[in-house]
Each structure stands twice: as C-alpha cells, then as structure tokens.
Amino acid sequence: MPVITLLPEHKQLELPAESPLIDLEFEYYGEQHLSFGCRSGVCGVCLVKVHHGASLLGPVAENERDFVQRMGFESGPYRLACQCRLNGDVTLEVATRDAMPHAAAPSPEPDRAPAL
Ligand code: FES
Is the distance from the beta carbon of residue 45 to the nearest atom of ligand 1 less than 6 Å? Predict the structure, then answer.
C-alpha cells in the first residue's frame, strides 16, 4: 500500500492505491492527521505542501489550480488534499494558516497604534 509521510513528525500512514486522501479520515478514525472542511475543493482547509511525490496524487484540475493560486500559493507543490488520489508514496506537510503568504499581518495593539 502507498505510504503517506506527514511532516514534520515523519508520521507514516497507509491507504490503498487509488484512494482519495480524504479516506485518511475514515481509515484513521479519531486521529486527525489532515483537516477537511467542504471536501469539494472550495474552502482551502485541506491545503498541503507536497514535498515528494506530487505526480503521484493525480492531475491538478483547473478549478483546483485556480483556487490554490487565489489563496496565494503555487499550484504543484501545494495541493488540496480533498482533490488528491494516492498513486504511490508521498511526503506531505499541512500548510497552516501562518504559512499563507496572503495572511494579514497582525494589527497593532491599540496602545501601540501610531497617533494620527
Ligand atoms: S476540504 Fe475544502 S478544499 Fe479541501
């Protein structure tokens, strides 16, 4: 069975070949390794960075590519896990909100805000 290695812990999980990555939820019930929201490629919660094996996750559909780019990421290394099918060993990392290039900078604290 193909192995999914999750960074940074190097935790290894297995799913049958051709499985959608979303099956992690069912195969490892009770252990949340990847977050899923809409499960249809429109919320971005399941964004992952693929370190190895990007070509083994199925083709990137135009809708997925456009969505990932609108989120501010490069399509290819970044995928929506809910849109991927596992065809071999891959290494992934959850793309946290802190890593999002378009994430707003924190607002200054009220007592430190510049005087107008
Ligand atoms: S779960 Fe919403 S985009 Fe993947």
Answer: yes
Number of domains comprising the chain: 1
pLDDT digits (tens, 9 = 90+) for 72-113: 998 889 999 999 999 999 999 998 755 655 544 444 444 555
Is the pTM for the entire model greater than 0.90? no
Please state the atom number of ligand 1 nearest to the C-alpha of residue 39. 1
Q: State the CB neighbour count (10 A cutoff) for residue 64.
A: 20
Ligand 1 atom showing the smallest separation from residue 41 Cα:
3
What residues make up the domain containing 22?
3-95
Closest CA to 19 of 4, 32, 36: 4
Question: For residue 29, what is the domain's CATH number?
Answer: 3.10.20.30
